């Protein structure tokens, strides 16, 4: 297998493990970009999603915003921001956040919306305040779906952060873009493998989080 | 001379030509993905044990970044349109399989029993009962696949100018004309929104029995967020 040979050659070359262009350094950069983008996207998407989901208002506006944001090409946005703003972290963060907000926003909205109304009414009847209803009744029940929205956002961020290398930033995309221009397929395949492994690691993290954070009662019924 | 619609001659296309190229590179893979996804999804519905491993494989495929996918394929298919279209077809497949499986599974057992009792055979039952009822879910998946496909074609600009409208981005950097990048982003986004609207129209035409306008609450209940749906259950 051609590809497997490349993978083997890439990872067994000790030159790829040290220094500025080493795997640990690039991996760290990639994780840093991804986590920052996910944190910003969650800071925007979660509160708005929870609020609109709880009140049940603004669903149509939200769906429209999400569709519009999804239609924006990430790669195009990245190059545009780079041309307009120059080299920096901001031109990378904008497309990644635009990419990640719609899944978080829409899934959170749908998750809170679709919570069984009877426990919510019961909580209201018991005299719970609206914030307490949201955080102690609705969010625990909606958590699996909210997490799945965060998960698909995270996966998309991790695999899209590779294009940051095209506008001369770091991250694992560096190997893919450099390998492409140097006709060094070993590097390309190695970089692609690293990104895929990182994406799978992200899936595992979310699986672990949902195992620990989701209440057993909710998990069983889901 | 440096107007919005003036396309550098190295792209060998007019603005409209680029749009045509973009649509071809984006939509053919979705069609291919749909053609492949229908039998795979049907097998997954038929043999329940098949679904988790299929979902696992597709999740792994989805995790491969498009750029890496393109570049690795150059070794086999060269710097051609096919190199861009194969990954897009795979991504469409990944989004469509769960959408179709969930759609077909959501057909009530009573409906199937009624169809069988009326003497409708398995093939006709699939084509005339299951697929139409699953149509809203399938079209929701198609919308996600199409929009992401249209936006991903641009990345093809990195591999020998196969990105259609995305090639404008490379030129925006070469010639330092930001207006080209604006043109690329705006045209791609508008294209995606128009095709998306077209698919909504197709759904309305295909499902005349669905309540229109007033059925907002039912719609919200019946249709989970498709992009979440695509990766649902993935890590189990």
From TrEMBL, chain A:
It is found in: Cell membrane; Membrane. InterPro entries: ABC_transp_perm/SBD (IPR051204), MetI-like (IPR000515), MetI-like_sf (IPR035906). Keywords: Membrane, Transmembrane, Transmembrane helix, Transport. Residues 27-206 form the ABC transmembrane type-1 domain. Signal peptide: none annotated. It is a multi-pass membrane protein. Its main location: membrane. The chain crosses the membrane at residues 31-50, 62-86, 157-177, 189-209. It comes from the Bacteria. It holds the Pfam family BPD_transp_1. Belongs to the binding-protein-dependent transport system permease family. This is ABC transporter permease.
UniProtKB/TrEMBL annotation, chain B:
The keyword Transport applies. Residues 215-236 are annotated as: Disordered. InterPro entries: ABC_transp_perm/SBD (IPR051204), MetI-like (IPR000515), MetI-like_sf (IPR035906). Gene3D superfamilies: MetI-like. It is a multi-pass membrane protein. It comes from the Bacteria. Residues 19-203 form the ABC transmembrane type-1 domain. Keywords: Membrane, Transmembrane, Transmembrane helix, Transport. Its main location: membrane. The chain crosses the membrane at residues 26-47, 54-76, 82-101, 133-159, 179-206. Pfam families: BPD_transp_1. It is found in: Cell membrane; Membrane. SUPFAM superfamilies: MetI-like. Belongs to the binding-protein-dependent transport system permease family. This is ABC transporter permease subunit.
């Amino acid at each position: 297998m051609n590809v497997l040979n490349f993978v083997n050659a890439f990872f067994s070359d000790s030159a790829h493990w040290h220094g500025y262009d080493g795997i640990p350094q690039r991996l760290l950069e990639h994780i840093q970009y991804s986590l920052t983008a996910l944190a910003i996207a969650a800071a925007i998407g979660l509160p708005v999603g929870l609020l609109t989901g709880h009140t049940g208002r603004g669903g149509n506006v939200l769906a429209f915003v999400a569709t519009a944001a999804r239609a924006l090409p990430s790669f195009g946005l990245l190059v545009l921001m780079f041309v307009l703003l120059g080299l920096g972290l901001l031109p990378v963060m904008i497309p990644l956040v635009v990419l990640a907000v719609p899944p978080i926003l829409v899934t959170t909205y749908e998750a809170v919306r679709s919570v069984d109304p009877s426990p919510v009414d019961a909580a209201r009847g018991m005299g719970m305040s609206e914030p307490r209803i949201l955080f102690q009744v609705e969010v625990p029940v909606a958590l699996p779906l909210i997490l799945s929205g965060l998960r698909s956002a995270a996966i998309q961020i991790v695999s899209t952060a590779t294009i940051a290398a095209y506008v001369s930033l770091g991250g694992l995309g560096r190997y893919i873009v450099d390998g492409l221009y140097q006709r060094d397929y070993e590097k390309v395949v190695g970089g692609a493998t690293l990104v895929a492994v990182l994406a799978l690691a992200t899936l595992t993290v979310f699986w672990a989080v949902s195992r620990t954070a989701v209440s057993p009662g909710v998990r069983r019924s889901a | 001379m440096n107007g919005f619609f003036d396309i550098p001659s190295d792209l060998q296309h007019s603005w409209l030509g680029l749009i045509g190229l973009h649509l071809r590179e984006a939509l053919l893979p979705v069609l291919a993905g749909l053609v492949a996804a229908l039998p795979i999804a049907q097998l997954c519905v038929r043999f329940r044990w098949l679904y988790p491993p299929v979902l696992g494989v597709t999740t792994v495929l989805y995790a491969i970044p498009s750029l890496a996918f393109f570049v690795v394929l150059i070794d086999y298919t060269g710097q051609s349109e096919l190199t861009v279209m194969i990954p897009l077809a795979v991504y469409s497949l990944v989004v469509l399989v769960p959408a179709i499986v969930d759609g077909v599974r959501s057909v009530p057992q009573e409906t199937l029993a009624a169809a069988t009792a009326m003497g409708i055979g398995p093939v006709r039952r699939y084509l005339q009962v299951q697929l139409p009822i699953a149509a809203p879910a399938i079209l929701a998946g198609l919308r996600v696949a199409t929009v992401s496909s249209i936006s991903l074609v641009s990345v093809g600009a990195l591999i020998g100018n196969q990105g259609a409208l995305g090639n404008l981005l490379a030129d925006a950097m070469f010639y330092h004309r930001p207006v080209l990048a604006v043109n690329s982003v705006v045209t791609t986004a508008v294209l995606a929104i128009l095709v998306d609207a077209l698919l909504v129209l197709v759904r309305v035409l295909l499902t005349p029995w669905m309540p229109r306008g007033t059925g907002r609450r039912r719609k919200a209940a019946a249709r989970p967020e498709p992009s979440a749906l695509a990766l649902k259950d993935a890590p189990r």
